[in-house]
Design goal:
The chain has 274 residues and is α+β, with helices and mostly antiparallel strands. The protein has a domain at 41-170. The protein contains 4 helices and 6 strands, in the order αββαβαβββα. Strands 1, 2, 3, 4, 5 and 6 form a 6-stranded antiparallel sheet that branches.
Length: 274
Amino acid sequence: MHTAAKVLLILGAIASVIGIAGMALGAGSIDDIDDSWNTFEIEGENNGTITIDDEDNEGELGLTFWVKGSYEDVDENGIWDACDNTNIEVTQTPVVLDSWPSATEKGGDFYYEVIHDYGNNSESDCNAVGVNQDDTRDDRGLIKIGRACYGCTSGDFTFEANQSVWVTYDDKVGEEILDDVGILVVGFVGGFGSICCGILLLIIGGIMALTMKDNKQQVMYAPPGDNQMMMVNNPTTTHMSSPQFGEASQPQMNAPSTTHMSQPSFEKPPQGGL
């Protein structure tokens, strides 16, 4: 397989895995949003102390009070019965910023409110009007009856009630939900994009793997034929001897060869004559 195809296939697989993990992270944050929305500082108690943490020193939105029940006006006095039957007394509150509209007037104390400005005339009350109902926590059987500590700075808020109440710290709930929504968006958007890129890389890598040849070259050795000679010319090495300045060599005198000449024999002729 071609090297480029391998690289694209590996990158595509990695991007796909990252995308799946991102989608899973985003899906998990959906449950986190629900958990953040249902985060209570006080649950089913008739008194308690809540610490307000105003990190930016700009004041807090404050606290919301919930009770078990439904929006009914059985006595037809124009006020929701749940509000009529609940009394909350604040015994301690942090300093309130006077720069917030009506914060000084409320002084951090509890006040009845279901839907803020439901009549577009800055009304905040418990009047038994059809549009003045908050069913956002109806799945838990809770209805909103009022708020407290509007515009408070850092400090402790303490209260007592004549029945069990649930209290949410609105600023904290809002921050947690924003964090969860951010994770949700990043997880789904980033995960989806990563999966798309991964699939694209896998497709391109697969096409390259099928169409491109390997870039490795095969080297084949062919031995020389029978009638071929392979000559290797070794460079001739010339040895130069240093001149010797010793005694002059004496010429060798060869002894003269001795020639033996025989004397003629003058003996008598053989008997019988020539």
